[in-house]
């Protein structure tokens, strides 16, 4: 991912998740689309 921070165990970048949240996606919508993610993983993105 060219040095971008990612969610552990995935190839999903923190920046991508934050961008989805900024564009009014809900956590449930993200989890439905990306089954490898967890709520804890998304919360870690917010803390980061």
Write a structural description.
The model has no long low-confidence stretch (mean pLDDT 93). The chain has one domain. With 48 residues, it is an all-alpha fold. It is 52% helix and 0% strand. It is globular. 10% of the residues are buried. The chain has helices at 14-22, 27-33, 39-47. The longest helix is centred in the middle third of the chain and has 9 residues, at 14-22. InterPro entries: DUF433 (IPR007367), Homeodomain-like_sf (IPR009057), WH-like_DNA-bd_sf (IPR036388). This is DUF433 domain-containing protein. It holds the Pfam family DUF433.
Percent strand equals under 5%
Give the overall form: globular
Q: How many structural domains? A: 1
Largest sheet properties? none
Look at the structure and give the mean pLDDT. Answer: 93
Find the count of extended strands (DSSP E, 2+ residues).
Answer: 0
End-to-end distance, in Å?
17 Å
Low-confidence segments? none
Number of helices: 3
Compressed to H and E, one letter per element, the order equals HHH
Fraction of residues in helix = 40-55%
- Structural class of the secondary elements? mainly alpha
Radius of gyration, in angstroms, nearest whole number: 10 Å
Protein name: DUF433 domain-containing protein
Pfam families: DUF433 (PF04255)
